[in-house]
Amino acid sequence: MNTREIEDRYTLATYPKFPFALVRGVGSYVFDDSEKRYLDLYGGHAVSSLGHSHPRWVEAIAKQASTLDFYSNICYSPVRAEAAERVVRNSYSSMTGVYFCNSGAEANETALKIARKLTKRPHVVAMLDGFHGRTIAALSVTGVQKMRDAFPESLDRLTRWVPMASLGAIEAVEPSQIAAVILEPILSLGGVRMGNPEYYQGLRRWCTRNGVALIFDEVQTGNGRTGKWFVGQHWGVEPDIVTTAKAIGGGFPVGAVIANAWVAADVKSGDQGSTFGGAPMAAAAVAATYRVIEEEGLVDHVARRSTRVIARLRELMGPGRIRDVRGLGYLLGIECDLPGKEIQSRLLKEGVLVGISNHANTIRLLPPLTVSDAEWDSFLATFEKVLTSSN
Ligand SMILES: Cc1ncc(COP(=O)(O)O)c(C=O)c1O
Q1: What is the CATH code for 3-54+297-388?
Q2: pTM of the prediction?
Q3: Which atom of ligand 1 is nearest to the CA of 245?
Q4: How far apart are CA 50 and CA 53, in angstroms?
Q5: Domain boundaries in the chain?
Q6: Ligand 1: does its nearest atom lie under 6 Å from the Cβ of 103?
Q7: 347-363 residue pLDDT tens
């Protein structure tokens, strides 16, 4: 049996897959088992922030593996200390502490748990079309009805749904039983949709006025992807809790919950825990990822490069081609006349990996922060060809 047959035979059928096995990666490229090269503008789903197998990230993990492979949170760890300091310092100025876990869903579970304990209220406001992960509590605030309907015992009876970017809808919510508002500030799976700055500022004011914790799920928007370290920095809006994962470990499984002083003051020993959260190798991955982003100026690199890419994509707007370009930095949604799946498979044949979304005509670009102008130019030429070809 080949790799595909063995994997299909021995893993649960949870994922649709591309029909090839990837065996190695370097920088913005990955290679399959026939040595076909793909330009990775999907980043393994917004994960590979430094590109694939960045030498400084590889060195940090290898060094940690041969120095101290594992010890739990029962002891202090210099590398966890470095990771925590870098994450808190680069996040919002009101943030005081971080809790490390292993995934985005787990970070959201933790955020919902601590917000309910803090406010002593049961309900949570979440966005229609939002996505927060696959565990029961994360699913219960995920606004994709068909995902929840498949698991009818989720906790969504505790959720109040509002449409994204409607301040009126938030203001109509009776706040006395609301612990938190949770949102992806840019709905990524939902087609890369966002509000204007006044929306986020108004949301912040409503939460503050009503003693409600504002949770930004920055699993995708965090860690430099949008051209700021965290996305609220574009609008001068600070949440009470940030959840993040994906790119924070540059490819190593890490989740994080970052909290301001109001939230942190209520978090007590024993409130939450995770054997592997913030363990030495995970912490080494976070510290190395942040060190490289800081020292190579990647957040500014994303801001500069993406302005040019967005302008070039907008030049391709017009009948039969691109309808809209949305998003910030390296979290971009391109709405096309053709279905997203068709564009994705045409690009795949040309050796370019992109994502699709729950919006049928919108593809997503979630590439490494390191993608260069030359790599973008090669994508833009291929994309134009694919948009205008007849199959
Ligand atoms: C915005 C958002 N939140 C949460 C999650 C869940 O993260 P994980 O798959 O690490 O549990 C995802 C994953 O795609 C996500 O995009």
Answers
A1: 3.90.1150.10
A2: 0.98
A3: 10
A4: 8
A5: 3-54+297-388, 56-295
A6: yes
A7: 999 999 999 999 999 99
